[in-house]
Design goal:
Length: 107
């Protein structure tokens, strides 16, 4: 079986949205890193480091659960975990060009 890549994970995470913002979490710039550890039976454990747009984000549990579920659906992934980090803090500069366009923000 082919190992899951960061590209695979990021593609899957483009299906996860902050319920308050109509943009996926990848284009929002919330994903800070994806890490892989070998697991039994040619599988991998995946850890996603991410942040949120604000520390008091009421949807943090839901978003984290959605990230975990989405990554664990990928073939070759045994388990996924999510680490929410606050450094560096999220800023609107992390928005992708697509996100800026969707939100009507000029570059």
């Amino acid at each position: 079986m082919t190992a899951v890549t960061e590209t695979d994970v990021m593609s899957a995470l483009k299906q996860v949205y902050d319920p308050e913002i109509p943009v996926n979490i990848v284009d929002l710039g919330l994903i800070y890193g994806v890490h892989f550890q070998p697991a039994p039976e040619d599988k991998q454990d995946v850890t996603v480091e991410m942040t949120l747009t604000a520390q008091g984000c009421p949807a943090h549990v839901t978003i984290g659960e959605n990230v975990k579920a989405r990554v664990e659906q990928l073939p070759g992934v045994r388990t996924a975990s999510v680490n929410v980090v606050w450094n560096p803090p999220w800023t609107p500069e992390r928005l992708s060009a697509d996100a800026r366009k969707q939100l009507g923000i000029d570059n």
